Amino acid sequence: QKAAQNLKTIVPIKFHISSRTDTGVHALCNSAHFDIQRPPGKPAFNEKQLLHSLNYHLRPESIRILDVYRVADTFHARFSALSRTYVYRLLLGCSHYSEIPVFERDLCWAPAGGSLNVPAMQEAAQFLVGTHDFSTFRSVISETPLRSPVRTILQVDIRPSSGFLSHHYEHRRLEFWELTFQGRSFLYRQVRRMVGALVAVGQGKLTPRHIKELLEIKDSQAFPPNAMAPPSGLFLKSVEY
């Protein structure tokens, strides 16, 4: 919004963002909309002008505008979204945080304890797919009582991935995995809690059936203590319209 003030519009610009993220969480792509009104006699901005102008004023920040589109007055970046896709990156093979490659620090989570039982995690993940009451998988905040805990998870995938410049340190035998979650919307810290529970399954601390039981309990206090995944490995990948 601060960058947009330089556009010299009649009415101050207010951005409406599709999704909020916790401190430490990343976004490969997020979406927002805003209304813009120029002074009388001034031609409307085109998409390219807005793209370059906003990015010019965003130079000091770790954010860039990737695309600009003109949309209908009825469009809303948050409420018009059909689904959102999050990716969580895991790194296996590090016995200590200091062993994470410097290019990957704060961009993944390296759980302690070595390898994970990925087939068990994949089995457990299927209990999360579908429409459920996710009360156990949300953190409690002031607005929690006002929001329905029912959410629909369209897809959960757990697949091997590659790290940034990982071909330069193949001798270290590090493994990268990505957990992908797609749903229309998510509760506060829901994805991080789901990841933490799935990793606990992979470590043998929980069984796949425990995930089903946690869903059925419908109580945020029943979530295993200290099991929530840290924010550093989480990325908002895309918002679908």
Walk me through this protein's architecture.
With 241 residues, the protein is an alpha+beta fold. It is built from 4 helices and 8 strands, in the order βββαβαβββααβ. It has 2 domains: 1-58, no CATH class; 83-240, 2-Layer Sandwich (Alpha-Beta Plaits). The strands form 2 sheets. The chain has a 6-stranded mixed beta sheet with strand order 2-8-4-7-6-5, with helices on one face. A two-stranded antiparallel ribbon has the order 1-3. α2 crosses α3 (190-202) and α2 (118-125) runs parallel beside α4 (208-217). It starts with 15 loop residues before the first strand and ends with a strand. The model has no long low-confidence stretch (mean pLDDT 92). GO terms for molecular function: RNA binding; tRNA pseudouridine(38-40) synthase activity. It catalyses: uridine(38/39/40) in tRNA = pseudouridine(38/39/40) in tRNA.
